[in-house]
Amino acid sequence: MKNILVPIGDSENAKNTLQYAIDFAEAINAKVFVFRAFKVLSKAGTILNVDEIVGRETASKVKEVVASVNLKKVDVSVISAKGNVIDSINSIDKELGVDLIIVGPRSNSIKEEMFLGNTSGSIVKQTDISVLVVPEGYTFKPIKKVLTAIKSGAIKRKGILSPLETILDVFGAKMRLLQVKTPNFLPEDLEFHSELAAITSGYKSSENSTLFQGVLEHLNENNPDLICVFRRKRGFFKKLWEQNTVKKVDFESRLPLLVLKGTD
Predict the structure, then answer these.
(1) What span, in angstroms and rounded, lies between the C-alpha atoms of 55 and 201?
(2) Which residue range forms the structural domain that includes residue 243?
């Protein structure tokens, strides 16, 4: 991983998310691009250079957050872009090549009942880039144990495991694979992709109604530093395909959650 994108919203947790991203980037020797999108609603009689003014103010707000954290020796750049968050991220990815997005669970939302707010949820749902969701107030620490939860061992897209492979390699971490056999489990789900099998240090299967229930059942037993899941259209984040937000009653992670881009 070379380039990490950190979308910054209005939440009080923005500083904490950025600090985690910088600490993480230092460990894996990556660059950090701190990003915030802005929109301008055109009105009759507004001054012509309003885009430039709002863009400048947006960049200034991001720079304030950047100035409040310990940059260490990480290469940190600030980006502001006009438009919605998803389109802006796609444009940045096309220009720079983004390997990972690090985001807080609620970039703008202040609703306590939400685990993923609308912005963070839409990033997980709509971008084709792996996302690391950092819990509010979570402090970076070296990753030694990873719990990866899957239903199917099939992987159809090249390079999907790259972020996970980098983490395991850099931190010398061990990855335990939990395969949850849900009611719609198929025999072909037992066929594991060779690259996934190669990075697995331990394996266990479980029968549960949902993948999430399987994770909850085995979380304390494995005591991981990181949870990893795959973003499938009908997998772990199925609810995200109905709406962008995720309520805490449906799912909440108190550990960093790595969501690898879709395998479908």
Answers:
(1) 48
(2) 145-260
Do both 159 and 91 map to the same domain? no
Instruction: Identify the domain boundary among 133, 153, 182.
Output: 133
pLDDT tens digits along 39-80: 544 454 444 444 454 445 566 677 888 888 999 999 998 887
Counting the structural domains of the chain, the total is 2
Q: Which of 103, 133, 163 is the last residue of a domain?
A: 133
Q: Cα separation of 234 and 84, whole Å?
A: 26
Average pLDDT taken over every residue of the chain: 79
Nearby residues of 175 by Cβ (< 8 Å), 6 or more positions away: 146, 147, 148, 164, 168, 199, 200, 201, 202, 228
**In terms of Cα–Cα distance, which of 262, 230, 3, 258 is closest to 131?**
258
93 with 131: CB under 8 angstroms? no
